[in-house]
Design brief:
By secondary structure, the chain is an alpha+beta fold. The protein is built from five helices and five strands, in the order H-H-H-H-E-H-E-E-E-E. The protein has a five-stranded antiparallel beta sheet. A hairpin with a 7-residue loop joins strand 2 and strand 3.
Length: 202
């Protein structure tokens, strides 16, 4: 439970106390005041009526604020179901993903597997899932041909291990048009990746 959720729960508890106070009978309050201060003047019924209205109004405001706060909290963090669904869809989306690399072996369309996976999981969040807070942590032994990334998200302790394997795909090579429409001597090498995911850290 994050700090905002704790504050919302506190608001609900305070609202419950206010409602309980509004339900206390006037005679009981008078008896309590009399036992504490025998010389205190008696309170009229209108005072109790006004107090009940104030207590109930404050309780209603507290409940409304708490319910709205839970909605805001849900929109700011991931839950287990949202992350599970997003990771599964991202895995399906990336399995067979084609891309090309430059002369140094760097992919042309994304920075690295971690950034690509984070982007895809966020895209498939849907619902109330935020458009941020997803982290794909690569393993120390990752290589361009094989990587293992642990996917986590803010708001949930659930994690997933995504395995990525790159394979050369010559049919996906790309040669940009040469100067003045002639043939180009530059060829970007094509690759495809196979992706699978299992629950838990890598």
């Amino acid at each position: 439970m994050n700090a905002l959720d704790k504050l919302n729960v506190l608001l609900l508890l305070v609202s419950a106390v206010l409602i309980a106070m509004a339900c206390v009978k006037a005679d009981r309050v008078r008896a309590w005041r009399q036992s504490l201060t025998p010389s205190a003047p008696d309170l009229p019924d209108t005072a109790f009526g006004c107090a009940r209205v104030v207590f109930l109004a404050l309780a209603a405001c507290g409940v409304y604020t708490a319910v709205h706060g839970f909605g805001v909290s849900d929109a700011q963090s991931w839950d287990d179901k949202e992350l599970t669904s997003a990771v599964r869809q991202a895995t399906d989306d990336l399995d067979g993903y084609r891309f090309t690399v430059d002369d140094s072996g760097t992919p042309l369309y994304f920075d690295d597997y971690a950034s690509l996976l984070e982007q895809k999981v966020t895209e498939h969040g849907g619902g109330d899932a935020p458009q941020y807070g997803v982290t794909a942590t690569p393993s120390d032994t990752d290589t361009p041909d094989r990587a293992n990334l642990t996917v986590t998200a803010d708001g949930t302790d659930t994690s997933f291990c995504t395995h990525v394997e790159r394979a050369r795909s010559k049919k996906d090579d790309y040669s940009p048009p040469g100067l003045y429409g002639g043939e180009s001597s530059l060829t970007y090498r094509g690759y495809r990746i196979a992706v699978r995911t299992e629950e838990g850290e890598c």
